[in-house]
Amino acid sequence: MRALTISTTGSLDAVEYRTDVTAPLITGPGQVRLRLRAAALNHLNLWTIRGLPGAVITPKWVLGSDGTGVIEEVSDDVTGVRPGDRVVINPGLSCRQCAYCRAGEHPLCVKFRVLGEQVPGTFTEEVVLPAANVRAIPSSVSDADAGAFGLAQLTAWRMLVSRAKVQAGDEVLIWGIGGGVAQAALLIAKARGARVWVTSGSDEKLQRARALGADELINHAGIDVGREVRERTGKRGVSVVVDSVGTATWEQSLGALGRAGRLVTCGGTSGHVLQMDVRRLFWNQWTIMGSTMGSDAEFDAVVAELVAGRLSVPVDSVYPLERGRDALAHLQGGTHFGKIVLQIGE
Ligand SMILES: [Zn+2]
User: Fold this and answer.
1) I need a surface site. Which of 7, 218, 257, 269 has the fewest CB within 10 A?
2) Which residues are CB-contacts of 23 (< 8 A; sequence separation ≥ 6)?
3) What pLDDT score was predicted for residue 56?
4) Cα 107 to ligand 1 centre (Å)
């Protein structure tokens, strides 16, 4: 099979397009084999290439977490999907036996794994997955929307809906509106009736975010976003901050957060170590929460939003699989607005 792979971790130079990767086979009950048509890129792919602590890759390691394609084959016991179905993938794999899984909290699974990170991924022609990790989508969902769908929407849904419980009356600040998670968060927060503040270092991206429904725009280049938010809100601040940038934005995020505010994070693209004065935490009665991936129920919810046409994250660009390294460089460069997608098959 054709595939985008790494055989060692490091820079993007480690990324290899190959044509000699062995096709996977169904090996037991509860599995599906699907032929991939498109797959969206995520920052997670860049972390995998750089090397994640504890993650062991075996050459030729297939990258990629997201994907959409057509079911080719299912195990005898699979009833939810059948050959010929168009599907989207939930890239989080859980054991379905531990206490967290039994409680429906799959991303807390003690054996949680992610496609492309701890198991071979989707930037290839075929993949075998648990049937629980795919959902059929109707023909009304466009190829572009299906191709841009995955981790970003699922992650944003859990952050905003399940964790921060965003609702009408909330003021939500979202950092870095060029990325897919941030854009999905914007769409979800608006659909729930919140007012949404977005930041970017690019005025052009801010104007495009306005077209997606953003209420307040902040060009974060060279300013203190916390101070800016306090000025625009008469010192009140926002009720929710969505921060996946980490070290570079943390202090400003806290500066923007009003009393009893909730800060939710799903990553730290600029750095992982944060500092905090505990007096501010208790005096302001803040809630700081982490979030990652999503459960089966959250995946169902986010697929329903996709089918309803309420979660169309823009597609920045589409690259053929063989130009995957260029696509990853584009993601790393940060000039994109929306999802960067690899076209794999017809
Ligand atoms: Zn589990």
Assistant:
1) 7
2) 1, 125, 126
3) 83
4) 8
Distance 344 CA to ligand 1 centre (A): 31
Res 289: pLDDT: 98
Per run of 10 residues, the mean pLDDT along the chain (length 346 residues) is 96 97 96 98 95 86 98 97 98 97 98 94 98 97 93 98 98 97 98 98 98 98 97 98 95 98 94 94 98 98 96 96 98 96 92
Instruction: Map tokens 């397009």 to a residue.
Output: 17
**Cα–ligand 1 centroid distance for 150 (angstroms):** 21
d(CA 108, ligand 1 centre) in Å: 7
* Cα(295) to centroid(ligand 1), Å: 11
Going from the Cα of 308 to the center of ligand 1, the distance in angstroms, rounded, reads 30
Distance of CA 97 from the midpoint of ligand 1 (Å): 5
Please give the single-letter amino acid code of residue 216: E
pTM: 0.96
CA of 62 from ligand 1 middle (Å) equals 24
Q: CA–CA separation, 337 vs 205, rounded Å? A: 7
Q: How far does residue 294's CA lie from ligand 1's centre (Å)?
A: 13
